Fold:
Amino acid sequence: MSNGFTTSGPGGADGINEIKTDIVTLTRFILDEQSRVASNATGDFTLLLNSLQFAFKFIAHNIRRATLVNLIGLAGATNSTGDDQKKLDVIGDDIFINAMRASGKVKVVVSEEQDEIIVFDGDGKYCVVNDPIDGSSNLDAGVSVGTIFGVYKLQPGSTGTAADVLRPGTEMIAAGYTMYGASANLVLTTGFGVNGFTLDTALGEFILTHPDMKIPKKRAIYSANEGNTIYWDKPTQDYFHKLKYPEDGSKPYSARYIGSMVADVHRTLLYGGIFAYPADSKSKNGKLRLLYECFPMAMLVEQAGGLATTGRKRILDIVPTQIHARSGIFLGSELEVQKIIDEYKKFDEAQ
Ligand code: AHM
Ligand code: MG
Structure:
């Protein structure tokens, strides 16, 4: 599978003339960005993002060499939500937590792999929520996985509690993911659009390769685990039925589902379409976690011009009631996501 990102290099016999000598590294980019995110810029946010990129490089390095050093296999523990933890989940989690602690800028960390919030000593001003290796069930098959993260500012006067992160996604000041595939692709928003970076392993730097990413307004692609159809409610079932049996006789949608949220969202950002993990109609709960899966992806997609909804509510407006809370989600191209919103509206008005 192509990841959609490639690094540019010399081409042709005369390649030397085509080498870019003035490239925008992530470090250079975030130094510029710092002043936009915090008007009283102290450099703290830049240092935080530097620690994040170190964690991504370190995790990418471990994933690359995983097969070589026989890391693939169960670590013998279960995580907070009862799934088997793979060795790489454990390593990814350790790398991430250590990098956040070492930054000196973080007060609170929430990880998918930890039951409780982690509060660091010191006067860090930021809270970082993350899923260190999302889609890890795919690791053995060599499918792309990724780290998803979101950043909140610590509440004024707080010493670091769950209340600092039990806030709507609209209050996140930054979010993104790094997808580990053929290369490592970091997609980042600090609330001023979305930018994509590719790790140049020789330079050891993330290079800005996809400035100001915009999601196409529409595309006839859907991405969902259709094996769950019987668990979906009627508006969701009706919606997917119409994509496959268009009422106007047009060509049906294409299905593309990797089963690794980062890879599915990455494709959706680049090509357009809709990604969905709908809620279970009985429990009314989804699989994906609000804080470190739904919110960061919703922020990215909105910043790229798309939409993210439960069908009835904007994802970023939800207030999580606990750190591992879950939600159903539909996200992607504006005109595709609007169709599921309309389906729910029609259904609710008929009740
Ligand atoms: P994980 O956090 O345990 O890796 O689970 C999240 C993953 C997502 O990456 C993906 O979208 C989803 O689970 C796939 O679930 P399913 O196998 O039910 O289709
Ligand atoms: Mg996950």
